[in-house]
Amino acid sequence: MRLLYLAPFLFAGAAIAEPVQIPGPQGPLEAEMIAVDGAAHAVVIIPGSGPTDRDGNAPPMGLKSNTYKLLAEELAASGVASLRIDKRGFYGSAAAISDPNAVTIAAYADDARKWVERAASLAPCVWIAGHSEGGLVALVAAEKAPQALCGLILLATSGRPTGQLLIEQLQANPANAPLLPEIKAIVADLEAGKSRDPATMTQVLQPLFSPGLQRYMIDLFAYDPAAVAGKWRGRTLIVQGSADIQVRPRDADILEAALPDAERVNLPGGTHMLKVDKEGQPFATYTDPGLPLHADLTPAITRFLDRASDRQ
Q1: Confidence bin at 221 (pLDDT 50/70/90)
Q2: DSSP run (H or E) holding 227
């Protein structure tokens, strides 16, 4: 795969895509950088949950959207530089930590701050764009904001604790109804900081609540995104799709209430992958990388960045 990096792709306006690294806890952290000559803004794109890579794909989970890659390319065409990262323990950042489940949101946030510092060489104003769980990472990172951080872009980010969101997502599938009492009890234990022996669970739930994932969930479930958001007073853009089956518009409502100065953009028919929903094919935007981003997404982000420049 490294051979792909031997011929960086050139965009209009002398933008160049190439891998870059910064020190991680045990080895390097890696991202894909798109530098744009004369850029006023740079965006650090933080992936969502699980083994999601810098492009917005998670092969082990069947996710192949190219969402982050498409976003970075569209931003470059609009004169905005970017770094889209691989999280510690995964892909280009695999050597940064031996166990990708032995992480915390605070550790991810610390990495995000370091990427902001690296992105400051691309543009004077740096933004963290966090997708889904990455939005929580962005909010936590902003609690100790690096000097170059100009604000946050929250893409399909939950306003509720993740344990509640997980129950809602599993509840949406009628086939899970017999398992819901057990699921709710497990989530309640994890929210209380207590792990469960997977051998005591119904077999189908054991992969979802493996010991490594439980350690991560105990940390993750302790965060209330709205409470974290309430501490941030900087510029924020909230982006929410109306057809998102994972993070609902009411999550954006909660974030908006916690961030009264934030701007909000609604994507009509937009899915969790920030693309237009395909009627009758609820998972098409998760599995077809050829589908384009929602037409309103990148223009909304660039307008937001332009307005921020006007206020400086």
Answers
A1: very high
A2: helix 225-229
Q: CA distances (Å), 89 to each of 20, 30, 93, 135, 219, in order?
A: 16, 10, 6, 19, 17
Tens-digit pLDDT profile for residues 76-120: 999 999 999 999 999 999 999 999 999 999 999 999 999 999 999
How much of the chain is helix, strand and coil, in % rounded to 5?
40, 20, 35
Residue 101: which of 211, 195, 207, 25 has the closest Cα? 211
pLDDT of 9 > 50? The answer is no
Between CA 14 and CA 31 the distance in angstroms is 19
If we measure between CA atoms, which residue out of 246, 19, 38 comes closest to residue 131? Answer: 246
Q: Can you spell out the DSSP letters for 64-76?
A: E--HHHHHHHHHH
Sign of the Cα torsion 223, 225, 231, 237 reads positive
Q: What pLDDT shows up at residue 3?
A: 31
Angle made by CA atoms 291, 295, 296, in degrees to the nearest 5: 140
Give the whole-angstrom CA distance, residue 234 versus residue 230.
Answer: 11
Tokens of residue 4, six digits: 């792909």
Report the residue count for the chain: 312
Mean local confidence (pLDDT), 192-204: 97
Q: What is the pTM of this model?
A: 0.94
Phi, psi of 152 (to 5 degrees): -125, 150
Compute CA 70 distance to the chain's CA centroid, rounded to the nearest angstrom.
14
In this structure, are residues 71 and 55 in contact, taking their beta carbons and an 8 Å threshold?
A: no
Closest-CA residue to 166 (of 156, 153, 180): 180
